[in-house]
Amino acid sequence: MTEHRSYDELVAAAREDGRELVIVEREGDRALVRMSDPTNLNALSAPLTLQLQDALAALVADRELRTIVLTGEDPAFSAGGDLQLMREAHAAIDGGREGTTMPWRWIRWQFGGVVRAIAKSDKVFVAAVNGAAAGVGMSFALASDIVLASERAQFVPAFMKIGLLPEVGTSWLLTRRIGYQRTFELFAGGETVSGEEAARLGIANAVVPHDELLPAALEWCDRISALPEHAVLMTKPLLRAAADMSWEQALAMEEFAEPGCFTTSDHRQAVETFLAR
Length: 277
Fold this sequence. Notes:
This protein is an alpha/beta fold and 277 residues long. Helix content is 52%, strand content 16%.
């Protein structure tokens, strides 16, 4: 019989797990974050999710860091929500004192916490999708600023097949990328989308050979490093906000933000360099 654990008890037990399920590698102004539970296809168990959230929180707070690459240990990016964790949520709803607020807490504070860290931080996130990215795992990839897919990548919008709805921002992200009808088709059909098809649809920025996936992600890190820092810091929130604005609102936001760039030495030096040619 499944134990009726509260949200706090679930978190406490997950933090006692001694496995290293998220590996972080740092070099200069970039970091590589790898979900690492390959036997379970990097499914988002409670311990893995908490470790991922903790790792991202520390990296996002690091002023020296500019780019974060998110990937999974082969053969998968992430199989999405852990089924045992779902079963525990069922038990908590049926017999626990917290009812539906137990999974609500987890979905909002953990899964939602990860996508908020990706979308709202000043860092550029590059998702290197090396294999299956299913459910919430796909959501983490789609929330990133750049999505690169290997030839082995599979985007799996399987929410409806297991009686769930698109969550943690996936409905917003996909309808803005590919429109309502195509998004409905993906979720209702539940069909796997290959890396090549994802790039064709605009779900991924590019598809590359599997062995070239991380080098391609690190090349994006190099591109970001070469840009004036303030330009990246100001452009990410501008573009993220523009998706919810009218044309007039976006225009006004750009007009207010742009003059600040004129005060930077990077901009002034770039102008002088072009004029000297």
